[in-house]
Every structure is written in C-alpha cells, then in structure tokens.
C-alpha cells in the first residue's frame, strides 16, 4: 500500500507494508486478556497483608500469569486506591464481585466462613480457559505455573489437595472420623508423595475422609453450564445448610468422583510440617498455607515461638522475611502510601486492633479451611 504524507511544503509518497493475516491475528491475541490466571478473594481488611504478600511471592517466583483479586463491597473503599497502586506493581488485577450466600446455613464452624462461599464466583469467570484459586493466607515459595497444565478428564473436573483430617490437637468441632489413621496423608513419604498422592476414594469405597478436599487451592475450567449446575445445587441440595466449611464441603460434594488429587507441596498446610514429618521437606514446598492464626497477626517472639500452640515459629518466620523484602522494596520505590495501607491492616504492623485482625480465630481453631 502507498500512502501520501506531507513533510514541510511537499508531499512524499511512502510505501507502507500491510500486516499479514497471521500478524493481525497475533496482535489481536496480544490485546486479549490472558486466558489463565490465579484468583484470590479479599473481603476484609485483616486479610490485606496476606493478599499483598501472595501477589508479591507469585511475582518473585516469575509466574507468567496475573493474580485476580476478587473483592466484595465489604472491603472499605478507602483501601482501594492503594490496593490499585500495589496491583499495578505486582501483576495483579482488582475485580469487584458480589457476595454469594445461600438462603440457609446452620452448621458453620465459625461465622467468618460465610465469606468463603464467594470463592465460588470463580466459576462464573468464563472468559478464562483455566483458573487456579489461592487463599489469601498463602505464600508462594516456588514457581508452580505447571498447575495450569494439569490434565483433567473433562471440563467438569477440578484438581485440589486432600483435606488433612489428623486433628492431633483434639479440636471439639471436628467430626469423629477426623483422626490420623483416616488422613489421606498418613503413610505418605518423601519423595513419592510429591507425584503420587493418595487416590480420591470413589463413592461407596474407601475411607470417606479420603474424598474430602481442602479448597485453599483448586484448579478449575469455568463455563456457563457448569456454573448453572452449581447454582442449582446451592439452591436445592439439602446438605448445603449443614456444611461446616461452606465452599470446601460444597466442592467435595458437587465434584464427588470428579476431582484429581495434587501433591501436598502445592497446598502445604503449616501443621503438616510436624504432623507429617515423613512427607514434609521444607525445600519441596511450593505454596505454604497459613491456616488458623496468621503470621501477620503477631510478630515472632524473641525465642522464635509463634502459633497458638507455639509450633509455627519457622514457617511464620518465612512470611516475615518476605514481608521485610516487600516492604523494603516498596520503600525504595517511594511507595509509602502502599506500605502505610498494609500496616494499617495489621495489629502486628501497628494497625487494626488484634481482635478485629484475628477475626475470632482464638475461639474456633478450625483447621479444615483456614
């Protein structure tokens, strides 16, 4: 194609190369949003430090995919400018979503678990071909982009980790069959545990606890028909009203015989470090899950003790080390507003009162979900 362009007082004919069809297609694909993404949920200020460090750790370990932070109107609007600024620095996307709450729910372990229903909104994000949900109380310790390529038998399947049901602390809320001998991780050893997790018990066979999953991390392929089916399940299945851990119990029931187990390293619950020592290796953990009390709730004591039973000093130290790295990086960049926002959401950092930050975990130490 020849195009006439004016330069000074004259006109110059300049030959312009017409892009090829393949180049045009590539350009269009580059303009589209990525077809894969990580997703987390943020509903209250007390989880802001966790979500910020989750995004930071994904970026630190060179993930190719963005983190979509679903947030609900319950998150104070005053936090959004600084959150938006941090998102622009950490390959994250803020996305407002509506809370999801069934009509009846009578058996929750703690009222804070009402928020976790909204995690299911991930299944209406149909513009993505593959999504991986991560709880906001996780810290990524190694690249795990390979999860997006996890083979599944069909689009109506998910992948997740087994729920650890050891209950070695004897929590009263736990069902009677939550015991070490019934845990899917009992008997696993390193290194075979990394690639050969315990099979999911099919309906009517095997220990029922081997069919339970932990929804802190799960891989899914969202599409409209699946979401419609899930909404009908929410509205009509009588079990929904009695779920102890809302989204987690629903996923285990809805995807019964349709979920694939993953190696523990992708959802390494911090208590596994001392509950399953034959399996756990610090250097193998890709993604650490801070269930129960969160490291940003309290700084490490001088003797290094942390956690409500004093056993989590080492894993909590990992979080504080990464927080120090993130804060120092933002300070050097002149992003004081972002740092102040995060500090304001944590008692240990000088912000919220401890009771508000903890969200009542002291009264209900529920390990199945958080």
Q: Low-confidence spans: pLDDT under 50, at least 5 residues?
A: 1-17, 353-370
What is the CATH homology-level superfamily? Answer: Spore Coat Polysaccharide Biosynthesis Protein SpsA, Chain A
* CATH architecture verdict: Alpha-Beta Complex
What does the radius of gyration come to? 23 Å
N- and C-termini, Cα separation: 62 Å
Average pLDDT, all residues: 87
Number of domains: 1
| Helix percentage range | 25-40%
Beta-strand fraction estimate: 15-25%
What are the secondary-structure elements, in order, as H or E? EEHEHEHEEEEHEHHEEHEHHH
Could you say which overall geometry the principal axes of the C-alpha atoms support?
globular
Please tally the β strands and state the result.
Answer: 12
Number of helices: 10
CATH topology, anyone? Spore Coat Polysaccharide Biosynthesis Protein SpsA, Chain A
Describe the main β-sheet briefly.
7 strands, mixed
Oligomer kind: single chain
Query: Structural class of the helices, strands and pairings?
Result: alpha/beta
